[in-house]
User: Fold this.
Amino acid sequence: MLVFLNGQLLPEAQAVVPVNDRGFLLGDGLFETMRVVGGKPFRFAQHLERMARGAEFLKIKLPFKPKELEKFAQRLVEENKILDSILRVTLTRGPGERGYAFTGKCKPTLVMTVHALPQSPAEWSLITSSFQTPSADPLASFKTTSKILHVMARAEAAEKDADEALLVNTNGEVTETTSGNLFWVYDDKICTVPTGRGVLPGITRAVVLEICQSLELPTNKCVIKPEALRHSEGIFVTQSALGIVPIVALDGQTVAPSPLVDQIARAYIELLYRTQVDG
Assistant:
């Protein structure tokens, strides 16, 4: 397997970063994960735009322009001969001195890797995690590499024989899952949590909102508590790797299926492949 590291395509075993890289030491970095269909990353520009905003916020200089990275990404996918796959782009501040403080002298590290498609689950069960996210954390707007809370919440779900964990913020409001955005159906409206509550503005989330508009399905961005979520008419999670995953259970209670979720899921698959064919 070949890996992109700072402008070079290298065998995976040779693609190494220094032990003093701040991404390794402190989680000082960002990442994006996206679906690749027919050798083309889906919504690459939107993913890179979010990474660029995050890099500006964290004061990390992107070492390549988005168009350059897109060309490198397509070459990486082609060289590895995995045209339907997952692409991960990781950016760190790079090697630095010990301690939290940083200077403008750090040389960023940028890595891209390609992975086989995970087996797409037909459905998920959720548990509400005991780990809480800050309700107004500006870092929630970006995919930082500091994900230990999500790691522990997912482990908690596994311990309870659930597929995924639902995260609640410090106000007791539902935010997202460890790996995706949350949607639910209520009164025939497609609802999701507004940003600014500890929610990542996901790319697939944005695509689903576009789909709802094209299908003339009403949407609503609102806050909800876990107790109320259990009474919704359907729940699903969106993420770049798996697309749309219906939820069939929450904290041991069955979640009724909704035909609207199936309708959106079909439209998403059609868009995913049509966009890649059309270029």
Summary: The CA atoms of residues 4 and 76 lie 7 Å apart.
